[in-house]
Amino acid sequence: MRATPMPELVERAAAQPSALDAAEVLAAPGPVKVIAEVKRKSPSKGELAGIPDPAALAAAYEAGGASVISVLTEQRRFGGSLADLDAVRERVSIPLLRKDFVVTEYQVLEARAHGADVVLLIVAALPGNQLRDLFQQVLDLGMTALVEVHDETEALRAADLGARVIGVNARNLKTLEVDPSVFGRVAAHLPDTAVKVAESGITGPGDVAGYVADGARAVLVGETLVKQSSPAAAVGWLRGLSAQEAV
């Protein structure tokens, strides 16, 4: 697909309503927050779900009590697209995360132009000043950065940025194996002022409870949710709520 010229992206981004403050939403009092993901496939598990109507899935997540919707826009490995982001933006009123391998200013601007409120920045993929420059661009556009780390060294880089939302991914990017103990070990190096998000390895409320005990304020869940017959109920289930409480 042909790339949108930069001047057009700038205009589209400027025309968007102000971005929603996802950090404030995730830090709010109450049960653990769920960032629910629209995810068709993954490098580790292959095909997960067809998801012919991503907007309907996102609406179900919102109805179930999700605080943020994560939309994969990477096509080759995850089967996502910017069209998915557009469709979801039209359907839900809660913050949207563009989840992709974001490494350029163009991609950050593109996220805002398509209605994203949050952009994923993976510390391991952004050496030197590249991380700080993209982080600043995200802030300048009024968005929130979800800064993802995998170890203690990366955690210190994220903390040095002053990131308000920091995700700890328990999945090893090289082996794709998940080690839930990574979260607690790495989260201990993050400031208490940051919202700590646990990523990967979440199959049920027990996993969520373990992460919360180690300091997680939110969890990002994709695979487990897209496989459920009732995504709305599954969001409440992960939060440890009864069906009545989840509505």
TrEMBL record:
Entry keyword set: Amino-acid biosynthesis, Aromatic amino acid biosynthesis, Decarboxylase, Lyase, Tryptophan biosynthesis
The keyword Zinc is assigned to this record: no
One Pfam family named in its UniProt record: IGPS
Family matches, as InterPro entries: Aldolase_TIM, Indole-3-glycerol_P_synth, Indole-3-glycerol_P_synth_dom, Indole-3-GlycerolPSynthase_CS, RibuloseP-bd_barrel
GO annotation, biological process: L-tryptophan biosynthetic process
Reactions that this protein is recorded to catalyse: 1-(2-carboxyphenylamino)-1-deoxy-D-ribulose 5-phosphate + H(+) = (1S,2R)-1-C-(indol-3-yl)glycerol 3-phosphate + CO2 + H2O
Pathway listed: Amino-acid biosynthesis; L-tryptophan biosynthesis; L-tryptophan from chorismate: step 4/5
Protein name, per record: indole-3-glycerol-phosphate synthase
Organismal lineage: Bacteria, Bacillati, Actinomycetota, Actinomycetes, Micrococcales
